[in-house]
Design a protein that fits this description.
The complex is a heterodimer.
Chain A: H1 7-35, H2 42-45, H3 48-58, H4 60-84, H5 88-122, E1 125-126, E2 134-135, H6 139-144, H7 148-180, H8 186-198, H9 201-211, H10 217-228, H11 245-252, H12 269-296, H13 299-307, H14 312-340, H15 344-349, H16 361-370, H17 378-407
Antiparallel strand pairs in A: 1-2
Chain B: H1 2-25, H2 48-58, E1 78-82, H3 87-103, E2 108-111, H4 118-128, E3 134-137, H5 139-145, H6 155-161, H7 170-173, E4 177-178, E5 181-182, E6 185-191, E7 193-196, H8 198-204, H9 215-228, E8 232-235, H10 240-248, H11 267-281, E9 285-286, H12 296-301, E10 305-310, H13 313-321, E11 328-330, E12 342-350, H14 357-368, H15 370-378, H16 396-403, E13 411-412, H17 419-434, H18 440-455
Parallel strand pairs in B: 1-2, 1-3, 8-9, 8-10, 12-13
Antiparallel strand pairs in B: 3-12, 4-5, 6-12, 7-10, 7-11
The chains are: A mainly alpha, B alpha/beta.
């Protein structure tokens, strides 16, 4: 192919590389510019000059940081184009590929990547959304680990993930297997099992708040249940009880864990109540995934196994479970990401209480970003959000490695 | 078969949806949200009709002092006004706007109520430059907007309109004053009074509360009622707002006057903390959750407790939800040092970026002025922010509650930009005490630490 290379293609090649570089830098800078000013509104948007004035006033360092990034990205893209250009087929593929990607890419860059970049920049600043950001270095990240709130929220979500993910995965598999068997009214059961997942989590949380009242249904039924055996049930204020799981066990043996050592107390009753509700809502979502996977399993496998004399449990253990493995791991990853980001139930049911035992990182991000308890601290909130993102990335990374290793077996 | 099960599925979904709708309509206001004016007050009092008729007769006499526009407004001014509130509150402000139109005919007011998540929405609007010209301001918005210059200082407009800061109840202005400038005019206020069920006192065979009651008298009575067992004793949640009158009446405070030092580990606070803790231990004090109520007002309505401290919102709440329950209110009890109550208040503020600052300021001044406040008081919806209009309160119970707000040592629980965190530290300390998690000393030592961290801006 090198025979095609003439002086004219050589100059084309240079031109293409330079053009690529310019396009990438310009597009990224425009996107940064669109995300840059720290205030909007009619006054700022009145004309291009008022807009640029606002950008100059508040966002020059941000633009500088993006420019460095854009130049680096542009150079590497230009190098790629330069390398591919002499080969007509690969050149066409390259151009076509990016042309088709362009509409989506532009929208994502503007509305997601641009915003994330801005948030990342803001996390190194003190920013109250009205006055220009003040450079603060790493202090927002350091601050996160100085107070008790964020640490406690991480502690809470770790318990949450640890308990919710295995439980909801197990329940989802069992439900799916149940619904995959030949029982009557299968469609009906599928619908009612799935109903909690399609219902808005706000609605479900409101219903559960009522269930969990000290004078609510759950206490009522427990009292009735224990009453049958002549036992007295002490009503529990489910969403307001901060006693931890480990603390309860220690208390049963006559000890106690003081408030200062909250990190030994384990998940609180309130937190476990929210866990229960979340399992109830999420398990059916994953049930559908398992159901789909189950229908993909070749029925002849079961036939062969039953001819060999395997009973139901053996079939489940040795055929169903191994074949579901890839989907199990997918569900675990999705479940982990979802549980680390839990927010709406907390926001509606407990607002982080009692005694901070249901605080979650996202809830703190929300609280700080909107300044509902103090001044608006958008920089601090962004910092927390990035710490959480790194954490989620870390867990996902671990699990992805796990997945790819395991799935290769099948 | 298939269609039958589909029908079943549809039915079950319908049932779920119905079940979902039912509880939310009856949800009680959260007890930890004390601001009086946020409480539902859906009863439309009879006096309101006269209020709406008034402007019609006033219209021709715009030249009169009472009926003239507070400021010289811009030609063709058009302003947007936003606040929270349910239907009742919206009607009251629609009526106020009608009255305003008769005194400042040149100004168009576009009322855009935001019933829910008002503060969040306002902050977003303000950042986006689309905030209304005139809006409600509470301590949260004051802290978010005033330091960065988003609120118009109203002092010039006030002096032009002949309105003085002295016209308002002094405690109300503390929140809305920064560096000696006024950024909001108090639109109404609320406070706490001692609310009780006379039948509970009769049941326990003790006398009803009197105006010279102390917190110790309250404890004795609550103990008697609780021991009798028909009703719970004194209802109080782990809530800073309900605890504040105890502290203030013992000469204490949550923070120093300059908002730099937390004062939660002082004997003034810990003494009353011990009182509350002892009452909780001897069961003369119960939290609303203990008796199965969302908040203490509801506990009174359901006749679960004998007495509590609640505010003027009880009047309409009881009228609307428990019209048959006989209840009474009296001024807040006397503390060891003095008699002092807590005040909740909200103001009307003006957007610094408004196109029509004069018209917007004129509207804010009119809404909070004596003419308009006098009309609002008559509806039983809220108290006037002018001390000389206190006796316009109609309902006797409401009047008794309101009197606590006018005591000389009564104050707002405002501690600067981190008010929310300081107050939250107090609530948390109380809940640790109630849960038996910590002693009073431990709980307030921790609260002191947390509040101090918040005040230092951490």
């Amino acid at each position: 192919m090198t025979t095609y290379e003439t002086s004219s293609t050589q100059s084309n090649r240079n031109l293409a590389a330079i053009l690529t570089f310019l396009v990438i830098v310009i597009v990224l800078m425009v996107i940064a510019l669109l995300n840059a000013p720290t205030m909007g509104g009619p006054k700022v948007m009145a004309s291009a000059s008022t807009y640029l004035q606002e950008v100059r006033r508040t966002a020059l360092p941000f633009l500088g940081a993006v420019a460095v990034l854009a130049i680096a990205l542009g150079m590497s893209a230009a190098r790629m184009v330069y390398r591919e250009w002499p080969y007509p087929k690969r050149r066409l593929n390259l151009i076509m590929g990016y042309a088709f990607l362009a509409p989506y890419l532009l929208i994502t860059l503007t509305f997601t990547v641009g915003v994330v970049l801005f948030a990342f920049y803001i996390s190194f600043n003190n920013y109250d959304i009205f006055t220009p950001p003040q450079w603060a270095g790493l202090s927002n990240y350091a601050k996160a680990f100085q107070g008790k709130d964020f640490l406690q929220s991480l502690y809470n979500v770790l318990w949450y993930t640890l308990i919710v993910v295995p439980t909801q995965t197990t329940i989802a598999i069992l439900l799916a297997v149940l619904l995959n068997s030949s029982i009557n009214f299968k469609q009906f059961f599928r619908t009612i099992f799935y109903a909690p997942s399609v219902t808005s989590s706000v609605v479900i949380t409101l219903i559960f708040i009522w269930f969990y009242l000290k004078t609510g249904y759950i206490n009522f039924f427990l009292a009735k249940f224990f009453g049958v055996f002549g036992l007295h049930w002490q009503n529990i204020n489910w969403l307001g009880d901060p006693r931890g799981l480990i603390q309860l066990i220690v208390q049963a043996f006559g000890g106690d864990i003081p408030s200062k050592q909250w990190y030994f107390r384990g998940p609180s009753i309130a937190w476990m109540s929210i866990m229960f509700q979340n399992i109830f809502t999420t398990a059916p979502t994953f049930m559908i995934m398992f159901l789909a996977a189950l229908q993909d399993i070749n029925p002849t496998l079961y036939e062969a196994a039953s001819i060999d004399g395997a009973n139901g449990w053996q079939q489940f253990r040795n055929i169903t479970l191994p074949l579901l493995r890839p989907i199990i791991l997918l569900v675990v990853v999705l479940g982990t990401i979802g549980t680390l980001q839990v927010f709406d139930q907390v926001y509606l049911a407990t607002s982080g209480g009692p005694l901070g035992t249901s605080l979650t990182p996202v809830f703190i991000v929300f609280r700080e970003a909107l300044g509902s308890q103090g001044p608006i601290r958008m920089g601090y909130a962004s910092g927390l959000a990035f710490i959480l993102a790194v954490l989620i990335f870390f867990f996902t990374f671990l699990q992805r490695r796990f997945i790819s290793n395991e799935t290769q077996l099948y | 078969m298939k269609s039958l099960s589909k029908l079943f599925s549809l039915l079950s979904i319908a049932v779920m949806l119905l079940a979902a709708c039912a509880p939310s309509t009856t949800q009680a206001p959260p007890a930890t949200q004390p601001p009086a004016t946020e409480m539902p007050a859906t009863e439309a009092p009879a006096t309101e009709t006269t209020a709406t008729e008034a402007p019609a007769t006033e219209a021709p006499t715009t030249g009169a002092a009472a009926g003239s526009c507070p400021l010289k407004v811009e030609e063709g001014a058009s302003i947007v006004f936003s606040g929270w509130g349910d239907e009742t509150e919206q009607k009251i402000y629609r009526d106020s706007i009608e009255r305003f139109k008769t005194v400042c005919p040149g100004v168009t007011v576009d009322y855009q109520p935001i019933p829910d998540k008002f503060q969040d929405k306002l902050k977003a609007q303000m950042a986006g430059g689309t905030a209304p010209d005139v809006f409600y301001v509470d301590d949260q918005l004051m802290n978010a907007f005033a330091p960065s210059g988003q609120l118009l200082a109203l002092d010039d407009a006030m002096s032009q309109a002949g309105v003085s800061r002295d016209d308002f109840i002094p405690a109300l202005l503390t929140i809305f004053t920064k560096d000696g400038k006024t950024y909001g005019l108090p639109k109404d206020w609320g406070t706490l009074g001692l609310v009780y069920l006379p039948e509970a006192f009769k049941d326990a065979g003790i006398d009803e509360p009197t105006e010279d009651w102390t917190w110790d008298d309250l404890r004795t009575a609550a103990k008697a009622i609780a021991d009798k067992g028909t009703y719970g004793g004194f209802c109080m949640g782990a809530d800073w707002a309900r605890f504040a009158p105890f502290v203030f009446s013992n000469g204490g405070s949550f923070a120093s006057e300059d908002f730099t030092t937390a004062t939660l580990d002082t004997p003034e606070v810990k003494d009353v903390g011990t009182l509350v803790s002892d009452m909780y231990k001897e069961k003369s004090l119960v939290a609303p959750a203990d008796v199965g109520a969302g908040w203490c007002g509801e506990a009174i309505g359901k006749k679960l407790v004998g007495l509590t401290t609640e505010g003027g919102w009880m009047v309409n709440f009881m009228k609307q939800n428990y019209p048959d329950v006989e209840w009474k209110a009296i001024e807040i009890p006397q503390g060891p040092k003095n008699r002092a109550d807590i005040i909740f208040t909200n103001a009307i503020g003006v957007n610094a970026a408004t196109k029509y600052p004069n018209a917007a300021a004129a509207f804010a001044i009119y809404l909070t002025g004596k003419d308009n406040q006098g009309e609002i008081v008559k509806t039983g919806f809220a108290y006037s922010t002018h001390p000389d209009q206190a006796d316009l309160v109609v309902d006797p119970n409401d009047k008794a509650i309101a009197s606590g707000g006018l005591l000389p040592d009564t104050r707002v629980a405002f501690w600067g930009p981190n008010t929310g965190k300081v107050n939250d530290a107090v609530s948390q300390a109380l809940s640790r005490i109630f849960l038996g998690d910590q002693t009073v000393d431990e709980a307030f030592a921790q609260a002191q630490e947390e509040a101090q961290a918040a005040l230092s801006g951490q």
